[in-house]
Amino acid sequence: MVEENVHALLKKLEKGNCFGEHVALVAATKLRTAEEINRAVLAGVDAVAENRVQEFREKHNHVRGVQHFIGHLQTNKVKYLVGKIALYHSIDRDELADELSRRSLAAQVLSEILVQVNIGNEESKGGYALSDAFPAYKRLKTLPNLRVRGFMAMLPRSDDKQLLGNLTDEMRALFDAAKKTDENITWLSMGMSEDWELCVAHGSNMVRLGTAIFGAH
Ligand SMILES: *Cc1c(COP(=O)(O)O)cnc(C)c1O
Asked: Which of 10, 47, 95, 210 reaches 20 to 30 Å from 192, CA-CA?
């Protein structure tokens, strides 16, 4: 039951992360109907987020609530999103940031973004290497009509809690380093259905949950 799942998650998130910060609950809505998504919105999720541009375009007029984008984004599809997305989690390369900046400038909108980091160094995942993430953040910060609001990462699949704890701590250190001198830095988006509790225990303040809200596909 979507409503019960959302209420239970909000209850668990109530006390915040390990630093007592509020944790935002974002519903990952790939392959869910607008009707299911709206049930999650009414139950109290902070935002909903699509992975694919095509699905976003089909559903977005029927979906209420704040809409984010979390999937891999081709530069030639940026034009379909500009002005409609409150937060882009998946800005994973300079070419994409440049295109979003250019389109945002032309449309006279400000696009809020997170810098995606490939924290597990996985070939199958996008994102800047951890060693390049801070310089990338500095570069993206200078682009017109973009505002960097933080960082996003997907953890590798692993049962090694020590390893996952270390990776999430590295992400939090990166976030803290940027936040120290930049008041726009607010969000560390980290945590999916399988690992969100560990992420929140290591300083994530935004989780993206699909299965935990809507059930398995
Ligand atoms: C699907 C997806 C999620 C949510 O995954 P679940 O395991 O279903 O919670 C989170 N982030 C991204 C980028 C996703 O594609």
From this structure: 95
